[in-house]
Amino acid sequence: MALEEGNSSPAAEIQASEAESRAAVSTDSSDSKGVSKKQAKKEAMKAEKLRRKQEEAAATAVATAAKAAEADPLAGSYGDLPMEELQSKAVTGRKWTEVGALDADLADRAVLIRGVAQTIRAVGKKIAFVVVRQFTATVQCVLTVNEELVSPQMVKYATSLSRESIIDVEGVVSVPSEQIKGTTQQVEIQVRKLYCINRAVASLPINIEDAARSEEEIKEAEKVGEKLVRVNQDTRLNNRVLDLRTPANQAIFRLECSIENIFREFLRSEDFVGIHTPKLVAGSSEGGAAVFKLDYKGQPACLAQSPQLYKQMVICAGFGRVFEVGPVFRAEDSFTHRHLCEFIGLDVEMEIKEHYFEVIDIVDRLFVTIFDYLNEKCKKLLDAINKQYPFSPLKYLRKTLLLTFEEGVKMLKVAGVEVDPLGDLNTEAERKLGRLVLEKYDTEFYVLHRYPLAVRPFYTMPCPDNPLYSNSFDVFIRGEEIISGAQRVHIPDFLASRAEACGIDVSTISAYVDSFRYGACPHGGFGVGLERVVMLFCGLNNIRQTSLFPRDPQRLVP
Amino acid sequence: MALEEGNSSPAAEIQASEAESRAAVSTDSSDSKGVSKKQAKKEAMKAEKLRRKQEEAAATAVATAAKAAEADPLAGSYGDLPMEELQSKAVTGRKWTEVGALDADLADRAVLIRGVAQTIRAVGKKIAFVVVRQFTATVQCVLTVNEELVSPQMVKYATSLSRESIIDVEGVVSVPSEQIKGTTQQVEIQVRKLYCINRAVASLPINIEDAARSEEEIKEAEKVGEKLVRVNQDTRLNNRVLDLRTPANQAIFRLECSIENIFREFLRSEDFVGIHTPKLVAGSSEGGAAVFKLDYKGQPACLAQSPQLYKQMVICAGFGRVFEVGPVFRAEDSFTHRHLCEFIGLDVEMEIKEHYFEVIDIVDRLFVTIFDYLNEKCKKLLDAINKQYPFSPLKYLRKTLLLTFEEGVKMLKVAGVEVDPLGDLNTEAERKLGRLVLEKYDTEFYVLHRYPLAVRPFYTMPCPDNPLYSNSFDVFIRGEEIISGAQRVHIPDFLASRAEACGIDVSTISAYVDSFRYGACPHGGFGVGLERVVMLFCGLNNIRQTSLFPRDPQRLVP
Predict the structure, then answer these.
(1) Cβ neighbours of A12 in B, within 8 Å
(2) Of A108, A318, B180, B261, which one's alpha carbon is 20 to 30 angstroms from that of B168?
(3) What domain count does chain B have?
(4) Which of A17, A418, A376, A471 is nearest to B484 (CA)?
C-alpha cells in the first residue's frame, strides 16, 4: 500500500501525460492530499539538497575555470556550460542559425549554431576540426590558434569533446575555395566561441558513422582488404536513440510523417472525417492467439486488432466517409520481415452508392497522389535514404491497373505456377505475379480484385454473380500486398449468418451486428499499414526500419 | 485446438485489418493451408446455400411485386431494393446530389438523393411527407398522388417506411412560397421514385428527434404541461450508433477532426515532425493502479499512460521538434465528468535554446490559431452544437495571459481562498482562480507557470533561482486545466536522482535515462487531451460527449 499513498506513487506518473495526471492529483481526496503535501515538502528538501550539491560542483568547476583563466585570458570563450545556465535562466534574444541554412550568402557573417559534435579531429596542436550535425545537415567548424580569439587551450578543449556531445558554436562563416567532401554544407565556420551543452559518454555503443554506412561501402572496402564496422539490426534496435540519428533514419521518419499528412489531406479534400475508435475492446471474444488480452476493471478485454468493426459502426452512425490513423495490435507470432505486433493503421471506410469500384477509385487517386508527392516534394529525404539503402524509383501508372483474381491466377498458370483458384495466394505467388505484372504492364503498383469469398473475413460482401467470389481487393507494391479492402455486408441478418458460417459466436459481436439494424448504407473500405508503405516505396527489406521503436514477438524494449 | 486450426480461427479475424491478416494467411505453413482450403470450400458451399435461399426470397419478392404491379402500373417506381441490387452489380453512372447542396438554384431540376428517412407523415391517403437527412442537412420530400407519376399505393408504401431507413429518392426540386420550418434546406423534392435501400427496425431504442432535443426545449414544454422525452446519457451511450446521428454529435466530431488538423498543420509549419511511439511498453514497472497491465509473449507489459518517455527519447534521437496524436490509456478509477480510461493525447516535445517560454510561445500561438479557426471557419458546426447545448463563445486574448503560480495563489488569497503555496490547486481552487482571472483580465484561457516542484513529475526541471519551484506550467480553459507542460531534466545523473527522490526504481526506466547519456539537448513540451479541448471550447459538461465510444471504469461497450 505504501507504494500507492498520495504522491508516493510517482512511479505511476512516469508516463503520465501531465495534463491528465495532474488533473487526477487535483481531484484527489483531501486525505491523500495531506500525505502528498508532507511528501511534497520532503521531496522538495531532497531536491534542494541535490541542488546544493550541484551548486558546489558548479562552484568547483568555476574555480577550476578561474584557475585555467589565469593561464588563459580567452578561457571565457569555451567550456562546459553548468546546469544552471540551461535551466531557463534568462531570455537573451540570441538567434541560433540552423545548420541546414548555412550557405555562401552568410559569408563573413557571425553565426551561432547548436548541434551535435559528430567528428572531432586535431591537426597538430594548433588546428582542430569539429563537424557539427543538426538533423541531416552537417557543417565543418574550424579552430585555428590565433592570439586574439583562439588559444591553444581552446583547441585542446575542442579535441577533448566526446562525439555526439551537444555544443554551441559561435563563429564566422567562410567559403573555402574547394568543395568540402565530408559535410552537407559547403561553408565552414571559423570558430570564436565553443561551449558544451551536454557531454555524451566517451564510449558510445554504436558510432553514427558506422550506423550510417551502406552495405555497398562495406563491400567496396572489403575488396581492398579493409574491414569496416557493420552494425547489425539488433544492435541498432537496442540502441535506437543513436541509430535514429543517421541521415537515412532521419529521412525515413520525416517521409512517414509526410505520407500520413498526404493521406489525411487527400481524404479531407474528399469529405472524409478523421475519427478515433477505441483500442480497448470488450471480451476475449475474438479468440485465438492474435489478440493481446487484458483485464479491464474486472472485465475481459483485448486490444483492437484493427478499427474494422468500429469504423463500420461510425458509418452506421451516419458519418458518410471516415478515416483513422492509429495503432493496431497483433499478438501473432510472425517472425517475418513484414510483420509487427504494433503498427500504425491507415484505415478508410465509406458509403458506396453502387459499387466497390468507388472504394478502389479512392485507393487509386490517394496513392498516386502520395507517390507523386514523395517523388516531387521529398527528393532530399529520398536521396538520404537512397544513399544508405539504394533503391529504384517505384513504377506506377497514372491510372492504377486493375486485374481480377482469376486473371492473376491465369497469368501465374501461363507462367507455370499452379495455384488454387479458390484459395489465397502465398507470398511466393504474390511476388511472382508482381514480376509478371511488371513485365506485362510496366507497373509495380496494382489492384487485384474479386478474391475468393472463402479467404476473406466474414464481413466481406459476396459477388452478385458468383457467391464463390467476393467484392474485395488487395493492392500490391513491388510484389508485396500492402492494402486490403472490400465492400462490406450491410444487411444484419446476412452478416450474422456469414459470421456464424465462419465459426464466430455472434453473441460476442452483437453490438456490431445490431448497428446495421437501424438503417445502414452499403459501404466499403480498406486498411493499410503506414510502416509498410514507407518500407515498400523505398524498397527497404525490413519493417523494423520504418517503426521508431518496433514491437515484435521478441522485442518490447526500448 | 480445433479453434485455432487454419481458417477455422476466423474469430481471430473479426477485427483483423485485412491488410495484415491476409498477409498472415499467405505466410501460413502448407499444413494449415490444406485445412484452410477444405474449410474454404465448406464455407463457400454454405455461402452458396444462403445465397440460394436469398434468391428464393428475392424471387418471392419479385412475384409479390409482380402481383402488385398488376394492380399498380407504377409499381416499378418504388419498393425495397433486393440485396443483389446492392452488391456492386453495375456502375450506372448516376449522380447523387448531397442533401446539403439542395437549394433554389436547382429549382425544377430532377435530382437523386440518398439519405435517412428521418420522419414520415401522411396527410390523408393522397399525400405523404418524408424528411430525408444526410449528415446535418435535411430536406422535405413530398409524394402527391398523380395519375402519371405517383400512385396511391406508392404513397402507402412511403408511409410504411420505418424511421431511419436508408432510402433513394428521385424527384424534382421545387421552391415553396413560405419558409420551411422543420428542415435545413429551403426547397422540397416532388418525389417521382422512392426505393428503400435498407430498412431500420420498426421500434428504435431511441428516436433521433428525442436525442437531438435541448434541455431548454424540454423545460419550455414542461412549463406548458407537456412532457417531452429526455434521453439520459447511459441510454445514449448504449445506443451510440443512433445517438451519434444528432446534428450536435455530427458537429462535435467534425470539430474534433478540425482541431486535430489545425494542431498538425500549425506544428508542421513550425518544423515539427509527427511521430508514433509504442503503446505497448515493458514491465509493470510504472506500478500503481493507473496502468493497464498485460502479458506480452510471456513478458510483463503495460499500455503507455502517455508518450512522455518515448517522445523525449525521440528528442534525444535528434528530431528537434516532434508531436504525436494517439491514444493514451489510464486505468484510474476516476468517475468524474472529465476523465476517461482511453483518450486521444496531443503531445508536443521540442528542443529549447534557452527557456521554457519557447514552449509556452508555441502553446500560445497554437491555441490562438485553433480558436480563431474554429470561430471563423466552423460556424455551422458551432451553431449545430449551440442549438442543443447552448454556450457562450470562449474569451481569449491575442497574446495569452501568463501568470506565475505564486501570483495565482496571491489572487486566491486576496479573494479569501487559502491554498498551500507549495501544494497543488484542487479543482475548486482552479475554478475560482478562473473566475478571478476572467474578472480581472477578461480571458478564459491563460497560463499558470512556475508550479511547486513537489507536485510535478520527476522529469520536470527545477527553477534556476529556487529549487522549490519548477520550470513548468498548466493552461486553463473556462477554469479547468487542459494542458500541462514543462522544461524536462536532460542531464542523466540528475534525472536518475530525481526519479529516485520520487520513489521510482531507476532500473525500470534505464532505457529512458540512458538516452540522455549520448548527448541530449535542453528540451520541453506539453500534453493536451483532444476530447477536453472540444469539451471546454464548447462548454460541454461531460467528456463522454466528445469521445466516439467512451471508455470509463464502467464502460467498455459498445
Answers:
(1) 286-291, 305
(2) B180
(3) 4
(4) A17
Cβ contacts of A21 on chain B, cutoff 8 Å: 290, 305-306, 457, 484
Nine cell digits for residue B324? 504525436
Torsion, Cα B110 B116 B120 B125, to 10 degrees, reads 40
Amino acid occupying residue A346? L
Helix (H) or strand (E) holding B529: strand B523-529
| A251 and A239 inside one domain | no
- Asked if residue A142 is part of any domain, the answer here is no
Q: Strand A321-329 vs strand A342-351: parallel, antiparallel, or unpaired?
A: antiparallel
Per-residue pLDDT tens digits for A348-388: 999 999 999 999 999 999 999 999 999 999 999 999 999 99
Average pLDDT, chain B: 90
- Given a contact cutoff of 8 angstroms between Cβ atoms, the answer to whether B328 and B310 are in contact is no
Tell me, yes or no, whether A463 and A361 share the same domain: yes
Q: How far is CA A347 from CA A323, A327, B17, B391, in A?
A: 5, 11, 8, 34
- Give the list of residues 6+ apart from residue A459 with CB closer than 8 angstroms, or none: A308, A312, A486, A488, A489, A495, A498, A499
Phi-psi region at A283: left, alpha or beta (left = phi > 0; alpha = psi -120 to 50) = left
Specify whether B396 is located in the same domain as B498: yes
Are A228 and A269 part of one and the same domain?
no
Confidence of residue B62 (pLDDT cuts 50, 70, 90): low
Residue B75 near chain A (CB below 8 Å): no
pLDDT tens per residue, range B86-145: 999 999 999 999 999 999 999 999 999 999 999 999 999 999 999 999 998 999 999 999
Chain A contact set for B86 (CB, 8 A): 490, 522
Question: Could A339 and B23 be called an inter-chain contact, meaning their C-beta atoms sit closer than 8 Å?
Answer: yes
pLDDT tens across B326-336, in order? Answer: 999 999 888 89
Kindly state the average pLDDT of the residues B360-378: 98
∠ CA B262-B263-B267, nearest 5°, is 110
Whether residues A212 and A340 fall in one domain: no
Residue A472 covered by a domain: yes
CA distance A35 to chain B (A): 11
- Structural domain span for residue A533: 247-546
Compute the nearest-CA separation of A172 from chain B (Å). Answer: 20
Q: Say whether residue B27 is in contact with chain A using an 8 A CB cutoff.
A: yes
Does A551 sit within 8 Å of B518, measured CB to CB? no
**Domain-embedded: residue A480:** yes
Residue range B465-516, pLDDT digits in tens: 999 999 999 999 999 999 999 999 999 999 999 999 998 889 889 999 999 9
B320–A contact, CB cutoff 8 A: yes
B519/A116 Cβ within 8 A: yes
Task: Find, in chain B, the residue whose alpha carbon is nearest to that of A344.
Answer: B276
Write B143-146 long-range contacts (CB < 8 A, 24+).
B143/B191, B143/B194, B144/B190
- Same-domain status, A325 and A454: yes
**CATH number (domain holding residue A450):** 3.30.930.10
Nearest to B543 by CA among B527, B526, B558, B530: B530
Q: Which of B71, B90, B123 is the last residue of a domain?
A: B71
Determine how many CB atoms are found less than 10 A away from the CB of residue B351.
22
Q: What residues 378-407 of chain B have any CB closer than 8 A to a CB of chain A?
A: none
Q: Clarify whether residues A406 and A349 are in a common domain.
A: yes
How far apart CA B161 and CA B202 sit, in angstroms, is 9
Q: CA separation (Å) from B372 to A516, B259, B280, B365, B531?
A: 38, 11, 36, 10, 18
Answer yes or no: do B484 and A47 touch at CB < 8 A.
no
Q: Which residues of A are catalytic?
A: 330, 332, 338-339, 481, 484, 532
From residue A275, give the alpha-carbon distance in Å to each of A356, B260, B316, B548.
22, 10, 31, 8
Q: In angstroms, what separates the C-alpha of B344 from chain A's closest C-alpha?
A: 8
Residue A26, CA atoms < 13 Å, CB-side half-sphere:
25
